[in-house]
């Protein structure tokens, strides 16, 4: 259909031309995708869409079309809001919850909801949380101590704990995030990582969220290394604070 859509080979396609072609040939195009196409065209003065954007939309690629939809997120879709969707399964309801929790505009929410794919899953925050729990259980069973573990001499001998006196061992600037003082600290961090980190990772991807989380962890150890030369540092609170700060913009908007 390329000659019919773009006979002058300009690289742009009129939405009305495409919509009439869809209806005349009864093509099985998802109505939600047609809505997205119309919304993208509203951001163009001539009501046109780039041919590559059309290809990405039809093939469900989350590339230039998604970025442009985000950039023009103030547009409203000519359909009801996502909350009116009925008959959804548990997972799709969860995806809708994530859309409303993370994305501030209805256009962005609908785009994410219909373009979301289960692969790759949000494995980073789940893997970090699971590792933290396993490490805590191992040290708790080994030391027979489940609260204030940093007061135990054997605990401080761990190669994971960060202490300013061990700054030469560079891995400690990050590995301290797997150690925790007690159940309260572990439970608080794990809860926030799963409640905030997983939705953020679902929307923004593993690379961005892993970089954000690790940057927060590194910032915590670097800060302690210059502000308190005596205190050991354990816990993933630095990464949790980074996640909370990233989510703060969504809350404000």
Automatic annotation (TrEMBL):
<dbReference type="InterPro" id="IPR017213">
    <property type="entry name" value="Peptidase_S54_rhomboid_met"/>
</dbReference>
<dbReference type="InterPro" id="IPR051739">
    <property type="entry name" value="Rhomboid_IM_Serine_Proteases"/>
</dbReference>
<protein>
    <recommendedName>
        <fullName>rhomboid protease</fullName>
        <ecNumber>3.4.21.105</ecNumber>
    </recommendedName>
</protein>
<keyword id="KW-0472">Membrane</keyword>
<dbReference type="GO" id="GO:0004252">
    <property type="term" value="F:serine-type endopeptidase activity"/>
</dbReference>
<dbReference type="InterPro" id="IPR022764">
    <property type="entry name" value="Peptidase_S54_rhomboid_dom"/>
</dbReference>
<dbReference type="InterPro" id="IPR011992">
    <property type="entry name" value="EF-hand-dom_pair"/>
</dbReference>
<feature type="transmembrane region" description="Helical">
    <location>
        <begin position="202"/>
        <end position="224"/>
    </location>
</feature>
<dbReference type="InterPro" id="IPR035952">
    <property type="entry name" value="Rhomboid-like_sf"/>
</dbReference>
<keyword id="KW-0812">Transmembrane</keyword>
<comment type="similarity">
    <text>Belongs to the peptidase S54 family.</text>
</comment>
<dbReference type="Pfam" id="PF01694">
    <property type="entry name" value="Rhomboid"/>
</dbReference>
<feature type="domain" description="Peptidase S54 rhomboid">
    <location>
        <begin position="169"/>
        <end position="251"/>
    </location>
</feature>
<feature type="transmembrane region" description="Helical">
    <location>
        <begin position="123"/>
        <end position="141"/>
    </location>
</feature>
<dbReference type="GO" id="GO:0016020">
    <property type="term" value="C:membrane"/>
</dbReference>
<keyword id="KW-1133">Transmembrane helix</keyword>
<feature type="transmembrane region" description="Helical">
    <location>
        <begin position="173"/>
        <end position="196"/>
    </location>
</feature>
